[in-house]
Specification:
single chain; 123 residues; mainly beta; six-stranded mixed sheet; 6 strands
Length: 123
């Protein structure tokens, strides 16, 4: 199964339904289920205190389906900020947005070391 390591609080924002796009500098042709892995790195957590997040570290915390990979131009970047100016507040123009749907948060987290890029998780 494919997995994607994401820094916190971004991983928790995804599995708790606040973030529908994950941004990368690289494009993917992969479409399908992906495990959401909360990496060891954390940044700007205080900025999201009002979101009541369950922050994790080094764990698979849920899953989603990558349904599209969209190049972010200035117009799309502005549309994202209208959705939620806190979650999508930083500039994403020039990056790729992985559209995430059918997101599920796991009740039981799976402790595992992550990797860069899309990686294969073997139970």
């Amino acid at each position: 199964m494919k997995a994607l390591t994401i820094k916190e609080p971004w991983a928790s924002l995804i599995v708790q339904g606040f973030k529908r796009y994950e941004f990368r500098s690289w494009k993917t042709n992969y479409r399908g289920k992906v495990l959401i892995h909360a990496g060891l790195s954390k940044e700007n957590i205080e900025k999201f205190n009002n979101y009541n997040l369950d922050i994790s570290s080094g764990e698979i915390i849920g899953e989603a389906v990558i349904t599209d990979c969209i190049f972010v131009d200035e117009k799309f970047d502005k549309e994202l900020r209208k959705i939620d100016h806190v979650v999508y507040g930083s500039a994403h123009a020039g990056l790729y947005a992985f559209k995430l749907e059918n997101v599920k948060k796991y009740d039981k987290k799976i402790k595992v070391k992550g990797k860069l890029g899309l990686w294969n998780f073997e139970k």
